[in-house]
Amino acid sequence: MKNLEKKVTKNLIKDYSNLLNGNSFKDFSIFVENKSNPFEIKVHKSILSSRSPFFNESLRQESLSISLNQFNKKEMESILSYIYYGNISFENQENLIQLLEISIYFKLNLLKEIIQKKF
């Protein structure tokens, strides 16, 4: 049974990865970096709102986008990787501090707990 559960989990991660990296059914945009040079990341409202209390609250409005200029492209892509399929990269101590701050901002308590255990 454990092998079957691992296979299901692996397939789920692959499917969500395909959603994040593909262009199908994306209904929301996140703009990061600065206003004069924004970078757009297209995402799925339903996935963001189900995984992050921050997005659950923020996406209740009928907006089609949000600007999160306090984050850069790499940080946002990293947090979206966690939101979509639970994968997070711990590159170095500085990266851990940034990810901890981001996990607090987006109210990702499990990620916050994981990062705190890494310290």
Automatic annotation (TrEMBL):
Superkingdom classification of source: Eukaryota
SMART domains: BTB
A family per Pfam: BTB
Domain BTB: 26-92
Name of this chain's protein: Speckle-type poz protein
Species this chain originates from: Anaeramoeba ignava
